[in-house]
Predict the 3D structure of the following.
Amino acid sequence: MPSHIAICGWNDNGARLLHDLLRSDPPFFITIVSDPAPLLDDAHDMVVVFEEDPSTAAGLAAACIDAVEVAVVLADKRAGRRPQDADARTILTVLAIERAQPAIHTIAELLNDDNMFHAYNAGVDEVLIADAYIGGILSQVVRSPGMTGVFSDLFRAGSGSRIVERSAGEGIAFSVLSRMLYGEGEGVLIGYRRDDVLALSPPGDVRLEPSDRVLILQRIPE
């Protein structure tokens, strides 16, 4: 798990992201790089803010981006900015970050899924398109009324449930590991990742490899 995260740019999602990260156990050290800098409600000793342009080499150097493990690039949604322009700025920021720190893991928020191709060409590792996820959640709720409670439990910061990832360990059948984890109070095994390919609810007889990463749904301790 990374310990130092940079939030590049700022919008309303940044406030929620910051809130959730600070309630993590252990909390993350967070660098915010944005021009203009956000006005935070409270000062926190795990947060440092740089009023710098994250799409420039000078701005990233001032924020010591070379010490960061994960960078989240938020869409610039300021009034009057078109989604295409916001995504272009996001991709420009990704390019600057990848040039300054090639080993960093970058996550970009885009407004238009047509721009995913350009983002991945820029070197981004993961892309999030908020509206696409909202649409998917709404369709799940329509098909299964009452599901909003499930999503609220998963997305509530500091309480409820969370999905954690860990090594599969020794080669073992998925169903066997599932019973072991549940019996030991570790949570519910929901899938695994192999070579960046995600498999959720696989057949129980699938044999996990030591290099696999398993996904476990856990209850956050009160």
User: Anything to note?
Assistant: The chain has two domains: 4-128, 160-222. The longest strand covers residues 161-167. The radius of gyration is 19 Å.
